[in-house]
Amino acid sequence: MVITPNTRMQLVQSQTSSVLGKETVVLNYELGSFYELNEPGGFVWSLLQTQKTMSVEKIKNRLLEEYEVDEIVCQEELTMFLENLLHEKLIETTA
């Protein structure tokens, strides 16, 4: 799947998460896998928890507000991060 700025993301139902210090731990209980997210990853995760569904563009804009990062680097890193979450079945796209 190609991720564009207009692609909308949401968390899958088969997961749970917890914040431990500056990291977020996510468990996909259908697959029995768990993942550790660093601080920026945890920030994205918390956005999806509170907003339920967000476009990639809105997530990127929130990251740019929160962290000092070049916009192009932010877009590339965010896209790679979201692709990994999709691959691991922790998030899904929505219409």
Can you describe this structure?
- The structure is a single chain.
- The protein has 95 residues and is α+β, with helices and mostly antiparallel strands.
- The chain has a domain at 8-12 and 39-94.
- The chain has helices spanning 39-51, 56-66, 71-87; strands spanning 8-11, 15-20, 23-28, 33-37, 53-55, 91-94.
- The strands form 2 sheets. It has a 3-stranded antiparallel sheet with strand order 5-1-6.
- The protein is globular, with a radius of gyration of 13 Å.
- The mean pLDDT is 94.
Large-scale geometry? globular
SSE series: EEEEHEHHE
| Tally of helical runs | 3
Summarize the amount of helix as a percent range.
Answer: 40-55%
Outline the low-pLDDT stretches. Answer: none
What is Rg?
A: 13 Å
Compact overview of the structure:
The radius of gyration is 13 Å and the shape is globular. By secondary structure, the protein is of the alpha+beta class. The chain has three helices and six strands.
Question: What's the topology here?
Answer:
Blueprint: E1 8-11, E2 15-20, E3 23-28, E4 33-37, H1 39-51, E5 53-55, H2 56-66, H3 71-87, E6 91-94
Antiparallel strand pairs: 1-5, 1-6, 2-3, 3-4
Helix pairs in contact: 2-3
